[in-house]
Structure formats: structure tokens, C-alpha cells
Design a protein that fits this description.
The complex is a heterodimer of chains A (263) and B (286). Chain A has 263 residues and is mainly α. Helix content of chain A is 76%, strand content 0%. Chain A is built from 11 helices and no strands. The chains are: A mainly alpha (263), B mainly alpha (286).
């Protein structure tokens, strides 16, 4: 009896989670400029409008650039820091980790505005590079968390065996550590890419004239007649994100099923 | 371990690039913000000398105090609603669901869409000619659209409780999943009923997850900008909206900086008190 009540609650909760999200695809195919019931027929014209919107595509390009650079940099930084704290016993490692995780506990608006002050003081222009710097703040803590979990799960003896067999530190890294870390690295890349791709507030303050996709979307929300097109864009982002998540889970499971090569 | 001691220099070398980047992007800007908050705005530039005037204004002005209180109350309500709604589902997945992994994926997929558009979707749902109103009118349940759904603190709470749901479900699920099942059996064997067992074993042991979730949600939602701006109206404005106006609209950077730092400190103090209080409750429950 109790189980049935919980199961019912679980499905009600799923409905609460999915209902708003499903608004996006449903109204993106609705043949009306007004977002209201009843639906007035099927159309793909909002998607066609999207395909011919140069400003949107430029913003998409910017977001992809920022997302890829942020994902690579934050994963590299996370990788070296995670290796440092798991492989060596460092004095002050806890404080360093706390410092690196600090951005998670500071509102984005404070992070964005303080970076804005820094750029102003240094005489640097607002740019996509500034957005990348801002995104590193929120992405490095994520990368570090994912990668430390992965490093802690693996057997240090493998590194030592490699050293005993005559490999130097660099070759050990490439031939032993890196392959073992690969699932963690892929997970970190995907997580940081999606975080950066979706981030609005930091980009809003730091991007200047080069809008990223969320900044572009924010600008469109003021024009009611452009809303269906924005919803179509949202539906596409939803589809692509779901695809990425499934891919990420698939890769993570590959790693989980055989955590140790030959073990 | 001796190996670790000997090569610790290498470890610091590995750690340093990350620390340098975070120092550059976090510590230096926050220092600059602190310095800015100690200035005064004179036209387009800062006045000579240092002053605590901004802090006096932030702490002294009733309208600012009201906004701070409202931000904390709204995000406190968001935190409570999100955690309470998430607990049963996390409990269900941890103890009763047969295909746990599938449930976890199903619970997280909605969060991989654009945050902006998820918030905006609520504007469409709650709006004057939105999904709920047009649906209810079509069913002839109401004659006039309900005006009280959107542009108020309630809309902000609903929207944020939806936007941050995964941040509550996952930590609570992890802490429930970790509970040693034999403890539950022991409690039953010793005569505890289901409710008593839950209150004495399951709930206290899952408190770390609940506390973690509460902090993960309370801290960022207090400073949320997008949701109050889109669905809050004038009654649902929060502190981040004021900070943005001081920086971008009014152009009083020192005041904006002081507001930022005071709100950061306020969130930190409340979060710290909350964690300490929750731990004390958890200890006395055992």
C-alpha cells in the first residue's frame, strides 16, 4: 500500500519536472505566434525561421567556441590538480581544494561583476576570452570533483609497476594513467561543456558585443513575436543535450564495467 | 607514502596552474570588489580616499534591508519546498525502485535544457494568457484569467523549486543509498514500527544529504538574477536584480560592490548557522 502511494508520488513528481520542459517542443510546432491553448495546427516554420537567422547562428558559434575551450582548459586544470592531491601528500591540499571550490558558494552575479571590475582595472576589453575566464571559475570545481573521484578509484600499484618496468613519469602517464582516466576525462569534458554552453549571467556581463547563445536568447525574450522561434531553439537544445547525456552515461558505464585494465 | 613525501614538490607544481588561474579569476577580482566597495561614486569616477559610506547605506537603508530579507525568505522557501518535494522521490528510488538507474536518468534529463528557457517556460505556464489560464478557461472552470499566478514571490518559488530539483534529489538519494540496510532490519527486529524506524534510523542517517542539498540550493538561489527578472514582477525582485541595476543602470559601482559583498557574507553566515544547527539537531536525535 505504502509503495503504491510512493509510486504515485514518483510519477506526479516526474510530471512536475517534465511539464514545463515539454512546453518548449509542443509550442515550437504550434502554428500561431501566441503561446496559448488551444493549439492551432502543426507547422515547421519556426524551425525554418531559425535556419535563416544569422545572428542566432553566430551566437551558437560563439557558444560552441567558448564551451569547447572552457571544457578543455578546465579539464586540463582539473586533471593536474586532481593528480596533485590524490597522488601526493601535500600540506595545505585541503585549503587549496576549498579555495578552488569556492566559486560554487558565491552567487554568479558577484563572480561576474568582480571579473568585470578586474577587466576594467586591467584595461582589457569585454570578449569571449573573458567569458572563458568566467566559465573556468564555475567549471574547474566540477571537473575537479569528477576527476578526483576517478583518481581515488584507481590502483596506485599500476603506476608503480609501470615505473618498475622502466617507464619514465611521462610515459607512465600516457600509457597507464591516461587510459585509466579516460572515462573520467570524457565525463568532465561533457559536464564542463554543457555547464559553459548553458551559462547566462557571467556571459551577459563579460561577452560585450559577441553574444553567446544564452545571451542571444535573453535578448529575444523581449519580443513576443520571436518567442516561437526561441522555443524551437530550446527544443533543439533539449534534443541535443539529451543525446549528449545518453552518450556521457554510455561512456561512464563503459568505464565502470571494467575499471581496471586486465584486472 | 614515503614516496609521496619525497616528491611533494612535484605535487605543488601540478597544483599550481589551477591555483594561479583561480587566483587570477577569483581572488584578484574579489579583492578589487572589496576595494571598490570602500570608494564613493562621484559622477563617472570614484572619489578620493576610502570610506565606509557604502556599507552604511547598504545596512542603514530600510528598502535595502527589506530586499535582503525578502531574498533570504524567498530562497529559504525555495530550499524548503525543493528538499521536501525531493525527499520522498529520493526515498522511493533508494528503497523501492526496481530500475534505479533509469529513474535517476529520468529525474535528471529535464535539467540538461537551457536554464533560461526552463525558467521562461514557467512564464508561459503561469502567464495571463498562459497554459494554465487558457486551459482552465477552455474547460470553463474560470471565466477570467487568474492574475495572481505570475509576477510575484510565489511564481519565483515555484520556478526555482523546479529549476533546482536535481540538486536536492541527487544528494539525498546518495545519502539514503549509503544507509546500511542491516540497521533497518535491526530496528524492526527490536520492535520499531515503520514510522518510528524512519524517524530514528533513516531520517537521521540521511541528514547529511539533506543538509548538503539545502546548502547547494540556498546559496545560489539567494543570488539568482534570471528568475526574479522573468517571473518575479516588482514584488518578487531579489538582491541580484538590485545589484545589477546599481552596476549597469545607475552606475554606482561602489554601492553595487558593497551590496554584493554584504549579500555574500549574509548567505555565508546563514548557511553556516544552518549547518551548525542541523548538526546539533542530528546529534540530539540519536
Amino acid at each position: 500500500m505504502k509503495n503504491r502511494g510512493l509510486l504515485f508520488y514518483a510519477f506526479a513528481y516526474l510530471a512536475f519536472l517534465y511539464l514545463p520542459v515539454l512546453v518548449l517542443p509542443v509550442f515550437s510546432f504550434n502554428n500561431s505566434e501566441f503561446i496559448a491553448f488551444p493549439l492551432s495546427g502543426f507547422t515547421t516554420r519556426w524551425y525554418a525561421a531559425l535556419a535563416s537567422d544569422g545572428a542566432m547562428q553566430h551566437a551558437l558559434g560563439n557558444s560552441l567556441k567558448v564551451g569547447i575551450v572552457t571544457a578543455l582548459l578546465s579539464t586540463i586544470l582539473g586533471l593536474s590538480a586532481a593528480r596533485a592531491v590524490t597522488r601526493y601528500r601535500l600540506r595545505g591540499a585541503g585549503a587549496a581544494l576549498g579555495f578552488i571550490s569556492l566559486p560554487l558558494f558565491i552567487p554568479d552575479i558577484v563572480l561576474g561583476l568582480s571579473l568585470l571590475l578586474l577587466l576594467g582595472a586591467a584595461g582589457l576589453p569585454l570578449s569571449l576570452a573573458a567569458v572563458v575566464l568566467g566559465h573556468l571559475l564555475v567549471c574547474v570545481p566540477f571537473a575537479l570533483t569528477v576527476l578526483i573521484a576517478r583518481f581515488e578509484g584507481f590502483d596506485r600499484n599500476l603506476d608503480e609497476a609501470s615505473a618498475d618496468l622502466g617507464e619514465d613519469g611521462w610515459m607512465t602517464f600516457w600509457r597507464v594513467t591516461f587510459p585509466l582516466m579516460l572515462p573520467g576525462i570524457v565525463a568532465s569534458l561533457l559536464l564542463t561543456f554543457i555547464t559553459s554552453f548553458d551559462e547566462f549571467l557571467l556571459a551577459y556581463f563579460l561577452s560585450g558585443t559577441e553574444a553567446t547563445l544564452p545571451v542571444y536568447i535573453w535578448g529575444q525574450l523581449r519580443f513576443p513575436e520571436r518567442l516561437p522561434m526561441v522555443l524551437a531553439l530550446g527544443a533543439i537544445i533539449l534534443g541535443a543535450s539529451v543525446g549528449l547525456v545518453i552518450l556521457a552515461e554510455y561512456v561512464r558505464n563503459l568505464g565502470a564495467r571494467k575499471p581496471m585494465v586486465g584486472a | 607514502m614515503a614516496d609521496g613525501e619525497r616528491n611533494s614538490g612535484e605535487g605543488y607544481v601540478l597544483l599550481s596552474p589551477t591555483l594561479v588561474v583561480m587566483g587570477l579569476a577569483l581572488a584578484a577580482p574579489l579583492l578589487l570588489m572589496t576595494l571598490t566597495s570602500l570608494k564613493s561614486q562621484q559622477g563617472l569616477s570614484f572619489g578620493e580616499g576610502w570610506t565606509l559610506a557604502q556599507y552604511g547605506a547598504v545596512l542603514g537603508k530600510a528598502s535595502y534591508r527589506a530586499l535582503f530579507i525578502r531574498s533570504v525568505v524567498i530562497s529559504g522557501a525555495v530550499t524548503a519546498a525543493t528538499v521536501c518535494l525531493a525527499y520522498p522521490i529520493a526515498y522511493f528510488v533508494a528503497f523501492h525502485a526496481r530500475r534505479k538507474f533509469l529513474w535517476l536518468v529520468a529525474l535528471t534529463v529535464p535539467f540538461w535544457t537551457s536554464y533560461l528557457l526552463r525558467v521562461f517556460a514557467w512564464k508561459i505556464i503561469l502567464g495571463f494568457d498562459g497554459v494554465i489560464n487558457s486551459g482552465l478557461m477552455r474547460l470553463h472552470l474560470i471565466g477570467q484569467p487568474l492574475g495572481f499566478l505570475l509576477y510575484n514571490p510565489f511564481a519565483v518559488v515555484v520556478t526555482l523549486a523546479h529549476a533546482w530539483a536535481a540538486f536536492a534529489v541527487l544528494p539525498i538519494y546518495v545519502s539514503l543509498e549509503k544507509i546500511d540496510r542491516s540497521l533497518l532490519e535491526a530496528a524492526s527486529d527490536l520492535g520499531d514500527g515503520a514510522v518510528r524506524r524512519f524517524l530514528r534510523i533513516t531520517l537521521p542517517l540521511s541528514l547529511p544529504g539533506v543538509i548538503g542539498a539545502a546548502i547547494l540550493i540556498f546559496v545560489p538561489t539567494t543570488g539568482d538574477y534570471v528568475t526574479p527578472a522573468l517571473v518575479g514582477g516588482t514584488q518578487g525582485t531579489m538582491i541580484a536584480n538590485l545589484i545589477e541595476v546599481e552596476f549597469n543602470g545607475v552606475g554606482n559601482w561602489p554601492l553595487g560592490a558593497a551590496l554584493s559583498l554584504v549579500s555574500m557574507a549574509m548567505v555565508a553566515v546563514i548557511a553556516g548557522l544552518f549547518v551548525a544547527g542541523a548538526r546539533a539537531v542530528a546529534r540530539s536525535a540519536r
